TrEMBL record:
SUPFAM superfamilies (UniProt xref): Globin-like
One GO CC term on file: extracellular region
Protein name as catalogued: Globin
Residue numbers spanned by region Disordered: 42-63
Sequence intervals crossing the membrane: 12-35
PROSITE patterns: GLOBIN (PS01033)
Similarity comment: family membership: Belongs to the globin family.
Keyword Glycoprotein: no
Domain of life: Eukaryota
Species this chain originates from: Mizuhopecten yessoensis (Japanese scallop)
PANTHER family xref list: GLOBIN-LIKE PROTEIN
Annotated Globin domain residues: 65-222
Amino acid sequence: MADKMTRNGFGVVLMSVWHAVITLVMLPTLLIQWLTGTPTTKPLPRRKMSENGQSTNGNADGPLGLTERELKMIKVSWDVLAEDKKSNGVKFFMTLFTIFPTSKDLFKHFKDVPLDQLKYDGETTKSNKKMVAHAMSVMYALESYVDSLDDAYCLEELVKKVAISHKPRGIGPDKFKLLTPVLHAVIEDLVKDDDSVDLETIKSGWTKLIDTVCDIVEKAQKEV
């Protein structure tokens, strides 16, 4: 019993000493606050918030140098394209062949097929089947790029596979660069009556994405 009381008494004394030390340490700070009426420590800076409520930590640029607005508009425009991948995929190639007629020669399976026979009006035919199939594969490739905007390593590997498979056909970064004006034209036609979208931001966002794709293609094809 006596030992227990001794230990308790020692604990009380130790606690009192600890409080005294803390008071002595904090006293100058407390006096300064009392005399000046201001805290001695600066408040933590407020984090900038994105439109979805997530912190950006003050960083204006997102993945691939995209602004948050560009990132959002890419996804918005892709949702429009993806509503009908088959029709919009063929529309993409028809636009490509219209703006850059010689690009049709790059596709051996349908380079000799007249444009009017490549059109897709909701029905795949013997004449346009290879075009429709290729258009679909391109649309799914683009979808994988959009889905990987926040994963640079994944995006790089996806593009590398395409770059390597296209090298034997002489399709390098200069040809991939043609995607930019074609995508701009197709998307503009699809959203031209929608006042809720920011077309210029959509274009700048897709330009940055395709520029990144071209850089990866160039690097990958040099390594093969």
